[in-house]
Amino acid sequence: MGILENLFSKQIENAVRSQLGVLENENTFMVGARLATQTDRDRFSYDRTDILTQSLMAWRTNPLARRIIELTSQYVVGGGLSITTKNKPVSKFISSFWNHRLNHLPVRIYEMCDELTRTGNIFILLSTDAAGMSYIRVIPTQNIDSITARSNDIEQPISFTIKPSLDSLEPEIYSAYDELSDDISKPVMLQYAINRPCGGQWGESDLAPMLKWLSRYSNWLEDRARLNRYRNAFLYIVSGKFASEAQRKARQQTLNSIPPEPGSILVTDENEAWNIISPRLESRDAGADGLAIKKMIAAGSGLPMHFLAEPESATRTTAEASGGPTYRHFEQRQEYVSWMILDILRVACARRSTLDNKIPRELPEIIVQMADISSRDNISLAMAASNIMNVLTGLRDRSLIDNSEFLRLIYRFCGESSDVEEMLAKAKAMQEEKQGTAPLKNSSPSEGGGGVGNSGSNKKIISDGSTSPTKADKGTSGMTNP
Question: pTM here?
Answer without folding.
Answer: 0.67
